[in-house]
Design goal:
By secondary structure, the protein is mainly alpha-helical. Helix content is about 65%, strand content about 0%. It contains 15 helices and no strands. Helix 4 crosses helix 7.
Length: about 325
Amino acid sequence: MLGAKWHAELKLAKALNWRIPLYCRNILVNMKSSLFIALFFTSFLSFGQPSPELHYPERIAAINEQLKTDSLNYTLVWERLQMQVSLLGGSVQSTEMLSWKTDTAIPAAKRRLYYTHLNTDFEKIYQHILLPMQYEIAEEGDFYLNRIWFYSHMSEWEKAIQDARYLRDSASYSRYSDRGEYYHMWALFSLFHLHIVTHEYKPALAAIDSMLEFKMRDDPEVFFSGGGSFLGYTDKVTLLEYFGDTNSIVPFLKDCCIDNFNWYFENAIPNDYQSGAAKQRSFEIFQLMIQYMKKYQDKQLLIYERIYNNLAEIMELD
């Protein structure tokens, strides 16, 4: 038995017509208004242990010595190249790249030196490893992902975009077919940020839409409970606001609210962690909605503040 409180939640869901988007299509959501820079940046490589990069300079120096007498050892060339890209900063996001337009992190002369040296090694790997498909040395997906990061740090936006498109659409992903999703998500993530830098709104929007759709379809339980990595719905809201497409924020967040509450009401299990997280996330979107309604002085603000309060009371929101 689900109990009286659970039946009350289901009854409320039916009354609000969650599955028939009558009530929900009038839901507007907002997120905190904040700087574009603050919201796009989180590190995906933060671990609670010493970084292996501390040992990269020593290892690179050792490889340099080995290559003096073994210059055709492309395994070593690839190992060194990956470490050098990592030392440049590895993956890069749009706010970093935008800042380099006026205050580059790498001086121009030094960047030219990096570009000539590292680009030569990328060409060696492409010619001697990728073309003959010696994927036991370097995976095609890893090659393009590292070169995307390299081009990004060199401010070669268009070249990075070309590689990201190839990684998204055509890369074989080599031996590890199960890594295809990993590379695909990185390609979309890269395209999203690169198109922001090149000020191309529609391609950036397409990239995040593709990612959100995939995540929702691939693992809805994780998606609707707010788990997972890469980009989320708040990134899309920030994108819309950054490019001035504020009229699209409300319809998008309406759909988010509909989808999240629908999934919760249809799949939630009492005293289940994922269900509780999905419930919390649904209300967070609702709160976000109300904030944007206030920001844009929506005429239905009072109605939805009242709905939110009633819903929170019945569902005993923590």
